Amino acid sequence: MKREHRVLGADMTKINLGRLGIWRPWNELDPGLAEDVEDLGYGTIWIGGSPRGDLKIAERLLAATDRIVIATGIVNMWATPAEEVAASFHRLEDAYPGRFLLGVGIGHPETTGEYRSPYETMVRYLDRLDAEKVPVERRVLAALGPRVLRLSAERAAGAHPYLTTPEHTRRARETVGPGAILAPDQKVVLGAGPEEARALAREKIGFYFRLRNYVSNWKRLGFTDEDVAGEGSDAIIDALVAHGDAAAVTARLSAHLEAGADHVAVQVLTAEQGGDPRPALRAIAETLPLR
């Protein structure tokens, strides 16, 4: 059933993400899940996995809900021209004012054949979004290192760091300053023992240990060559993926908030592809106040 849509206030450039949201690949999101996530009290749904520039998936999620923010985490700058995603932004803003946040990023050099001059490409892309009148306050950048974090504070509302730790959040807050949005993701495995959780984590994130931008970021945080070898040491896996009972998982989410995050995007990892995240999200919502 289509819900009534509420205008969230006179200043549509301001957006409230809430303390916690969820991050999920675009092909594992549907309107029914969006309704349930909203009913649990989460503030934002981040559409992961480089959603298409037409943002039809965001439109479907917005149509099914009445208050939750829908954000992209992220639209890939190489895959989608700025003009295309800007047109999608304005279409969504006209229909659902104040409820969409555009996350954009550069992706990975190992997976993008055209990857070159990444910082300059980001600057040019943001210039084009400016020309298409996408408000600075309604876009965030995927950012890990200090230079792009600074860019996210100067040319966007802030940063959406991916696959990081509370220590990264602390350093990122120092870099972006007090006014910028800082919305890291946090992967979680709820209810599994350490060995089972680590095995699942390695299955889901082992790929990232072959991507130099992530490896470089982890080394900046103090992890060693041994930690980042193969599919990661137990120490780095435990740092990147929170596991255990609801109290242990929410303690990690709280650590990000205490380190300076405005919002944390929770990605529930499950053994089966596309597994139902609702039980874990419900347990988290019952343990850590979402508002």
From TrEMBL:
**Limits of the Luciferase-like domain:** 33-112
Matching Pfam families: Bac_luciferase
Q: Which GO terms describe its molecular function?
A: oxidoreductase activity, acting on paired donors, with incorporation or reduction of molecular oxygen
Q: Which GO terms describe its cellular component?
A: cytosol
Which PANTHER family does this entry report, sorted A to Z? CONSERVED PROTEIN (PTHR30137:SF18), LUCIFERASE-LIKE MONOOXYGENASE (PTHR30137)
Which protein are we looking at?
Putative F420-dependent oxidoreductase
What organism is the protein native to? Answer: Actinomadura hallensis
